[in-house]
Amino acid sequence: MGRTGHEGGGPPGLSRRELLRGAGLAAAAGATLLPAARALAADAPADLRVQGPDAVELTLTVNGAPRTVAAAPRDTLLDVLRLPLDLTGAKKVCDRGTCGACTVLLDGKPVYACSVLALDVAGRSVTTAEGVVGGAGRAVADAFVAKDAMQCGFCTPGMLVACAAAVAEHGPSLTLEQARAATAGNLCRCGTYPHVLEAALAAAKTAKGR
Ligand code: FES
Ligand code: FES
User: How close is the Cα of 189 to the center of ligand 2, in Å?
Assistant: First the structure.
């Protein structure tokens, strides 16, 4: 499997002398850019609101209700859901956008809550696994139980949210390929994939009668 980034002390194929020369050029470029950055700042609108570094209050809609929380610029949506809001359905597993355990709906679309800054969701609508189970996604949750689509459960809330989004989008016409695509960003270390897909398809069929 490939890796991103270089291993070792510097870019492959560069001598130490070349590397140092490059660093010197970068520093010179930085010195040139600094006045440009200052000029940009001087041109900024007078009403520009700078947020942070201290926590800032923001209001968002969570599972249908307005919630106001304080978040620092570095806090993610996952941080504010799990701590101040005590909604622990979204799991912090990788915390870097690779596993899908933190999946929530942002304005109806699945996102990794660990990869969205809290300040960026002010005024927007978030639905967590708790909201999915308590709302339109109840049939998907029931299908997860009926199809035995969980083992340890760490991936389950994220899987559930991703499946509920697919069922909501495609309804009874949801295909296996669409269900696979919808859950492609969700990893399950216990290998429950076939049961998760069965559950999504079963829930989609239930949606047919609505
Ligand atoms: S915890 Fe967010 S993608 Fe893994
Ligand atoms: S049920 Fe254990 S990681 Fe999916």
Answer: 5
